[in-house]
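ingest -> validate -> predict -> emit
validate: passed (alphabet ok, no gaps, 203 aa)
predict: started
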Amino acid sequence: MTRREWLASAAATGLLKAAPLAPTAPLSIAKCSSYDADLPALLSTMFDQLGGLGRIVRNKTITIKLNPTGSPNYRVQGKPIGVTHYMHPKLVFAMAQLLNRAGARRIRFIENAWASGGLLEEHMLDAGWNERPLLNSAPNPVTTDAVSTAMGYDPRAQRGTKPFATCDNTMLLAEGHGIGNTDLSRIEVRGESIADARFRFEA
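emit:
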């Protein structure tokens, strides 16, 4: 069965209906106009607003997927990839500092090199990273994505509506399975408000 066939079957049987009691969780928003800002302090404040990072990571092995999207040679509007579609290395390093301070036993960053069987280190160097020195946060991944999407888009948009013009809204699929909530009226936001932090991406 293909993914499309499964979605059609699930829709017909009611599996994709929104769960009325899908969970939600508070999340924190902060403004950051530059990656040269004090990212560890900014992130620390956000995690403190959610009850602290230590209670989540202390004495645990923490794995973070870096999620670089596409080739390091791709450019969006000619801008550096770290400010568009790649996670910025300074953000990753700041997160590593916080995890270490919070008592994480081990910190592992994982990824595969895009369309290549080569070494990940070489791929990241091509992307402008220097691994040697080695912003939205929430306990629920669906509420995090919903608020992040609200920076210019509707997190409850249906297929055929931007930013889901050619794909299914995975947040709604997750909500339908009771993983998390996309209803902004049910999501508690701490720190900056959505309205104050909103950055309207091009539709």
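The radius of gyration is 18 Å.
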